Amino acid sequence: MQSPKPFARIGTRGSPLALAQARLVRQRLTQAHGLAESDIEIEVFSTGGDRSQAENTTLSDIGGKGVFTKEIDEALLAGRIDIGVHSSKDVATGLPQDMVLAAFLEREDVRDAFISVSVKDIDSLPEGARFGTSSIRRAAQARRLRPDLRIVPFRGNVHTRLQKLLDGVADATLLALAGLKRLDEAHRATAILDPDQFMPAPAQGAIGIAIRAGDDRLAEIVAPLDHAPTHQAIAAERTMLAVLDGSCRTPVGALTHWDGEMLVLKGEILSLDGQTSFRAEVRGTDPQALGDKVGRDLLAQAGPDWLAQWTA
């Protein structure tokens, strides 16, 4: 006898963090709709980003934003899955025409964590220490404070990078605190960084839920999971990123917070060596207008040639 069709099929990457996030979405869906866990299937996909983990590559080398979502997006649009679960910072600003980010779980801590087995913070690193990261934003922010640091490419999932520190591949690294918390590894953080000094990536810390555009059934299914303040904050940050033509090739940071009914968006762009940076801050109630204004303000400060000069 044929098995009954699942209530919904979730697509995700196979890393421990991605699976933890997909299981969290499944848990929220079962709670919202009174379902059993078995009613919602999780299908694992290997993405281009997962298959390209060579140490001497950065995300910009293998395609930038979208490299961790492409195969899941294709399965969603083909109808093989119903929901794509993503780390929102990995999602390109230019979505496929028939796909929407319909919901966001409440955002986790947006800050980056400093991790080292030998020192307590970035200021305590010895001269010329090896700083492990494949994020050009984190590399630029670290170089802004410590131009002497040697940047060591640092690919792999969270546990792989933590093990590399123990193996002595680098003296320190930065990881998103949100990911550490979701993996119950927050105790590994040696220091939590000031988000105004180490501005997070746009949409960092938010789990995004993608569905097919115009699919009313799926929209109703995921609607109870949507956290409106997070949704609006991410909309502002992604709009800013789109205006900047931001990708994993450009050092861009974003930070939002609520001040009463007003959403406040800060944005930053940096040179690759971190020695030049520009910032803008705007407050308002329309997330898209906010993101557009911050992005345009940053472009006006940096000048028309900034992308060509400051791209990896």
Automatic annotation (TrEMBL):
Catalysed reactions, as listed in the record: 4 porphobilinogen + H2O = hydroxymethylbilane + 4 NH4(+)
Q: Which residues form a coiled coil?
A: none
- Source species, domain of life: Bacteria
- Porphobilinogen deaminase C-terminal domain: which residues? 233-299
Where, per the database record, does this protein carry S-(dipyrrolylmethanemethyl)cysteine? 248
GO CC annotation terms, alphabetical: cytoplasm
Cofactor: record remark: Binds 1 dipyrromethane group covalently.
Name the cofactor(s): dipyrromethane
Entry's EC annotation: 2.5.1.61
Give the free-text miscellaneous remark of the entry. Answer: The porphobilinogen subunits are added to the dipyrromethane group.
Q: What is this protein called in UniProt?
A: Porphobilinogen deaminase
Q: What is the protein's species of origin?
A: Devosia elaeis
